[in-house]
Amino acid sequence: MRYGEIARKTAETDITLRLELDGTGQSAVQTGVGFLDHMLTLFARHGRFDLQVQCSGDTYVDDHHTVEDIGISLGQAFRRAVGDKRGITRYGSIILPMDEALTLCAVDISGRAMLCCDLDIPTRKVGTFDTELVQEFLQAFAANAGVTLHVRQLAGANSHHIIEGVFKALGRTLAAAVRIDPALGDEIPSTKGVLE
């Protein structure tokens, strides 16, 4: 079973998180940020990951610390779960429609952290959620997971649909990249012999 567990406590957040890569899409998510709960539930379901997240954060200030720190924790758990990356497909990509929104997402589990993000979310908020935090979450995740992540909005007019498309696409793209390739056996999918 490939999994990562994180317990992370700062002056701003207290997070426990468990991610299982070879799951069934089950989740129990309580972050204190309702919209983020919804997005992480979608991420887990579409990635077929089992995800447990519990967070107590300073949301009386705003949601920034909670969203960013959960991105950090999820990235760290993901990195632990993939281990030395033996036998994984390594790459994944999708163009995912969500009603009028269309999202391209591509990942390389390379060990090299990078986010290339091109989103044009038309509103500053969805409910009480600051839409600029989507990129903060993705940046924190990519940096701590050690992945090269491209997210590009190809179409979209509804902010909720755009963000939902991003999280569904992220789940499905990562699921494809961590899939074990029987043709690789115990190989690390790199000519360097290591992915760090």
Task: Note down, in words, how this protein is organized.
α1 runs parallel beside α4. The chain has 196 residues and is an alpha+beta fold. The protein has 4 helices and 10 strands.
Features:
four-stranded mixed β-sheet, globular, 10 strands, single chain, alpha+beta, 31% strand, 196 residues
Secondary-structure map with pairings?
Elements: E1 3-9, E2 13-20, E3 27-30, H1 34-47, E4 50-57, H2 64-82, E5 91-98, E6 101-108, E7 114-118, E8 125-126, E9 129-130, H3 133-145, E10 148-155, H4 159-178
Parallel strand pairs: 3-4, 7-10
Antiparallel strand pairs: 1-2, 2-4, 5-6, 6-10, 8-9
Helix pairs in contact: 1-4, 2-3
How would you summarize what this structure contains?
The protein has 196 residues and is an alpha+beta fold.
Helix and strand string, N-terminal first? EEEHEHEEEEEHEH
Average pLDDT, all residues? 95
Number of DSSP helical runs: 4
Give the low-confidence spans. none
